[in-house]
Structures are given as structure tokens and as C-alpha cells.
Amino acid sequence: MIYLLDANTYIEAKNSYYSMDFCPAYWSWLDHQFAAGIAGSIDMIGRELKEGNDELAEWVEARKGQFIANDDDATQTAFVQIIEYVMGQNFNPANRDQKRTLG
């Protein structure tokens, strides 16, 4: 997986440029990205989106398998390692707050 989507990715798309009735191709494209292993999301995000009680909640409910469980021991251990690494760096506010691009 290359991209991990947060709740706002779905919410902003639904509420702005890619509403489900205006641009169903976007939502179909997302399905293809998930199926190809290019994009994904975690089950915590899926649960948050289902609380909306709207068409996005229905869309998410129909795609439970696209929201990956992340409460297993291996994932939690990786989270600890990431946090320890970040906290161990000598980041100062000026460097930390700079926007950076990958690549």
C-alpha cells in the first residue's frame, strides 16, 4: 500500500468536489485503488465515517474489507518504534513545521 487515507479525504471529497451523485467515477476509482493495493484506510477511519449516518456511511458499510484492522500487536509495536524515533530526533519548531514533499 502506498497511500493511507484519513477520514477528511473521504469527507471533503463527498462534501466538495466529488459528491457521490455528481462524480460517482471518483468513488469507483477509489474502489479500484483499494483493490490494486495502492490505497487503503484503517478500521478506525471506517468506524468514524459510519457515524455520519449519510451516503458516505452507507458507502463505507458496503466496503468493510477496505478498512484494515490496525489494533494487532505488530502494528502497535511499529507505532511505538515510530514514536520513539520521532521523539529521539532533534527537531526544532522551524524545521518541524516546514512543509516537505516526498521524492
TrEMBL record:
Pfam families: DUF4411. InterPro entries: UCP008505. This is DUF4411 family protein. It comes from Alishewanella jeotgali KCTC 22429.
